[in-house]
TrEMBL record, chains A, B:
Keyword Repeat recorded: no
Protein name: LacI family DNA-binding transcriptional regulator
Superkingdom as given in the UniProt entry: Bacteria
Keyword annotations: DNA-binding, Repressor, Transcription, Transcription regulation
PANTHER family: LACI-RELATED TRANSCRIPTIONAL REPRESSOR, RIBOSE OPERON REPRESSOR
Family matches, as PROSITE patterns: HTH_LACI_1 (PS00356), HTH_LACI_2 (PS50932)
Span of domain HTH lacI-type: 2-56
Gene Ontology MF term list: DNA binding
Length: 325, 325
C-alpha cells in the first residue's frame, strides 16, 4: 500500500501539504489540492483511519446495539442502518446485547474505545448508560423523551390489529402483551386494549416474551386457558407463529374459526401456511431514517430530541378473513 | 474517567512506568507492577485502546463477515463467535456482505483500517481477498484448502438426509441444490446425490437459492414439475419452509404422502406446523470453535490450515414418518 511520502512525491508537494489536504485544515491552493487528490487516486493511497481519528477526531465509525440478533426483525433494521451509512462513507459496528445490561455496557465501552462518533440503540431505554457519552445517540424502535428516536406508529399498529379482528367478526379476543419494560410494546398493547375496551367483544390478556424461547409453551397455555378464543392479537410475529402452530395442532380452522394478527412482518410470515396476516413495520426504512438522523446530528453537533414516527400498515395474508369493501 | 497521570500519582511512579506496565515492554519491578495494577483498578482507568493499538499493535478487535444477516442461521453463528470473544476480552465487529463482493471488500478495508487483529469469514471462498491481509483468518461454515476452517460435516449431513427419506419409504425424491459456488452446499448436495444414485428410488434435482426471496416461487415450480414427488431433501430450512407451505396449500398430507427434510435447524423450524424435521448444524458451537481457533492462531502467530469438522445430527420432528427401531 502507498505511503503518504509517495503521495507527496507523486504530487510534487511536501508531506505536510498532503496532510493538510487529507485533514481539510490550513490553506491549500486549489491546483495543489487537485494534484494531491490525483496522486491519492493514482496510488490508491488509504490514510490510516485510526491514526486520523486519533489525532483528528474524524473517525467515521458508528455503533449499533441490537437486543436480539436472532429475532429476524432486528437484522432487517440493521440492514437499513448499514446500507445508508455505507452509501455515505461511514462504517458500522454491530453489537448484540441480548437485552442484557452488562453486555450492553460492554459494547458501549468498545464503541467509546474505538472512537465511534455516534451510536444507534435498539436496546433498552435506560438513558443513564448514554449520559456519559459525548456523542450523538439515536434510538431506533425504542423511545424516551430525552433522545432523538425513530420508531413506527405503535399505538396506530395496536389499534389497527384490534380493529381488524373486530371488523372481521372475532368476538372473543385474546390480546398478547409483550415485555412491559419495552415502551413500544406497551404502547401497542395499550392502544389495542383501548379499542377492545370500547367494543362489545369478550377479551382477555396473556403476557408473552418476544423470543423463540418459550413461545410454543405460551401458545399451549393460551389455548388451555381460553379454548373459546376466536381472535388473537399477537405481541410479535414469532409469538404469532407459535400460536398458529398450536391452533393448527388442535385442529382449528384458520381463518374460519380463529383469526390471528401478528406484528412486525418478518420474512418468515409469508412462508407459513396459512401465511400470517400482520401489522407491517417498515424496518428497513426505520433503520435508514435513524442512520440519516444520526449523521445530521453528528454533522451539526446536535442531539435535539427529534421524534420520527413512521406509519404502519396491515399486511393482509391468510390468517384473517376477507371483508367486502 | 481517570488519566494516566492520575494513575502514576496514585501508584507513586512516573507516567513512563505506567506506560511500560500497560504496554508490557521494558523492565518493571514486580512490586511496582502490582502497585500500578492496583492504581488502575482503584481509579477504574481505561487506556485509550485506539492509541494503544496504534503504537502498540495490541488491538483486541476481531472482524466477522456474514453473508446474509436475515438468514437466521448466521445470527446464531455470530452469537457463538461473540460470546466466546467477549469472555476472552476481545471485541467483535460484524459486517454483512449480502454475498456481494464489493460489500465484502468494503468490510475488509474497514477491518484493516481499524486494526483488527484477526478475521472470521462465513462469506465467499475467494481467498484472493485475504491474501493481502497480514492477520490470521479463519473460515466458518466455509472451506478452502489454504485457510483454517470450522464447519459442520456437510457430506455426512447430505448423506443422512437422503438415507432418512429412503429408510422412511420415500421413493420419488426431489433433491434441492443450493448455490453451487458455496462449497459446503455443494458437498452436502453431492453426498445426498451419491446416496440416491445407489438406491432404487426415482429422483430429480432442482436448483435453489438460500434466501427468502424467491423461495415460494421455487416451491411452486417444484410441484408443477414433479407433482408425484414423495420426499424432498431441501437445501436449507428457509427453502424447506417454503416447500412445506406449498405442499400444504396443495392439500398434501405430511408426512403421510410427502416427507421433507431441511438443513440447518434454525429456530423457526419448531414453530412450523407440522414442525420441520431437519439436519441440525451446531451453529452456536461452530461459532465458538472458530473464535477459539482464531485466538489460538493470533496468540501463536500461526495460520496453519487446520480443519475442524463438527458432527451434524438428525432432528426428528413432524415432516418425516416415524420408523420402528
Amino acid at each position: 500500500m502507498a505511503t503518504i511520502k509517495e503521495v507527496a512525491k507523486e504530487a510534487g508537494v511536501s508531506v505536510a501539504t498532503v496532510s493538510r489536504v487529507l485533514n481539510g485544515n490550513g490553506y491549500v491552493h486549489e491546483d495543489t489540492r487537485k494534484a494531491v487528490d490525483a496522486a491519492i487516486k493514482k496510488l490508491d493511497y488509504r490514510p490510516n483511519e485510526i491514526a486520523r481519528s486519533l489525532f483528528n477526531r474524524k473517525s467515521k465509525l458508528i455503533g449499533l446495539v441490537i437486543p436480539d440478533i436472532t429475532n429476524p426483525f432486528f437484522p432487517e433494521l440493521a440492514r437499513g442502518v448499514e446500507d445508508f451509512l455505507q452509501e455515505q462513507g461511514y462504517r458500522l459496528i454491530i453489537g448484540n446485547s441480548d437485552e442484557n445490561r452488562e453486555k450492553e455496557i460492554n459494547y458501549i465501552e468498545t464503541f467509546i474505545q474505538h472512537n465511534v462518533i455516534g451510536m444507534i440503540s435498539t436496546s433498552g431505554e435506560d438513558t443513564s448508560l448514554w449520559e456519559a457519552l459525548k456523542i450523538p445517540v439515536v434510538l431506533l424502535d425504542r423511545v424516551t423523551e430525552n433522545y432523538p428516536s425513530v420508531y413506527a406508529d405503535q399505538a396506530g399498529g395496536g389499534r389497527l390489529a384490534a380493529e381488524i379482528l373486530l371488523a372481521r367478526g372475532s368476538n372473543n379476543i385474546t390480546l398478547l402483551r409483550g415485555p412491559q419494560h419495552v415502551r413500544t410494546a406497551q404502547e401497542r398493547f395499550l392502544a389495542a386494549l383501548d379499542v377492545l375496551g370500547r367494543s362489545n367483544a369478550v377479551f382477555q390478556v396473556v403476557n408473552t416474551s418476544f423470543s423463540f424461547k418459550g413461545a410454543n409453551e405460551t401458545a399451549k397455555q393460551l389455548f388451555d386457558m381460553y379454548p373459546e378464543t376466536d381472535g388473537i392479537v399477537a405481541s410479535n410475529d414469532i409469538v404469532a407463529s407459535a400460536v398458529l402452530r398450536e391452533a393448527l395442532k388442535r385442529g382449528k380452522n384458520i381463518p374460519e374459526n380463529l383469526q390471528i394478527v401478528g406484528f412486525d412482518d418478518i420474512p418468515v410470515c409469508e412462508l407459513l401456511y396459512p401465511a400470517l396476516s400482520t401489522i407491517h413495520q417498515p424496518a428497513y426504512q426505520m433503520g435508514a431514517e435513524a442512520a440519516k438522523l444520526l449523521i445530521e446530528n453528528i454533522l451539526h453537533s446536535s442531539n435535539e430530541a427529534k421524534q420520527i414516527v413512521l406509519p404502519v400498515s396491515f399486511k393482509e395474508r391468510e390468517t384473517t378473513r376477507k371483508v367486502e369493501m
